[in-house]
Recover the amino acids of this structure.
């Protein structure tokens, strides 16, 4: 992929740890269904979310002001492990719960100003395997996808958010619930 910097670690967490974390986060995170404004109409997001941050940080994501919770010990542990692998530091974690194949996230780039010029986004996947797609913003022939495995880590960095969008589409396949954690550094 030109103008993209991606690193993928399919076995970032061993299966036992990934299973444990999936069950624990599914049960203990206070998952919320937020509304988004689409053409002036409020509609519920097709997924559940939660937002964790260091004290004093708030984050507006897709026009939503997210209310931060403090990091739980599990999230803090994952943050540290992710920081070691990436060589970056993070002060926030956005969590997504895709309950089934009807839940999704549409095309976007994580290019908000508060993320800095060339953000590094570290994304951990737990639970059902889902397809994650990329499309180049200007060259319509450039498309890619990757199946994000249980316990995997995907890192997007460099200039990538300027040139590529990504999405997690709905699927008709019978998929089990999936949790995604994205670690970010907010200025
Ligand atoms: O669920 C995923 O893997 C993608 C999440 C994502 O792109 C985001 O939170 O910005
Ligand atoms: Fe994203």
């Amino acid at each position: 992929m030109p103008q993209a910097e991606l690193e993928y670690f399919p076995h970032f967490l061993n299966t036992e740890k990934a299973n444990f974390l999936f069950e624990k986060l599914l049960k203990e995170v206070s998952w919320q269904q937020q509304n988004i404004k689409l053409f002036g109409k409020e509609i519920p997001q097709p997924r559940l979310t939660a937002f964790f941050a260091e004290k004093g940080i708030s984050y507006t994501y897709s026009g939503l002001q997210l209310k931060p919770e403090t990091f739980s010990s599990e999230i803090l542990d994952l943050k540290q492990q992710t920081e070691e692998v990436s060589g970056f530091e993070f002060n926030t974690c956005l969590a997504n719960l895709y309950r089934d194949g009807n839940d999704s996230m549409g095309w976007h780039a994580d290019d908000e100003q508060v993320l800095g010029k060339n953000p590094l986004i570290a994304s951990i996947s737990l639970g059902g395997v889902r397809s994650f797609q990329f499309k180049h913003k200007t060259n319509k022939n450039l498309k890619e996808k990757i199946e994000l495995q249980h316990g995997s880590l995907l890192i997007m960095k460099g200039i990538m958010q300027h040139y590529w969008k990504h999405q997690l589409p709905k699927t008709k396949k019978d998929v089990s619930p999936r949790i995604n954690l994205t670690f970010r550094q907010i200025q």
Notes: Helices lie at 15-28, 73-86, 160-163.
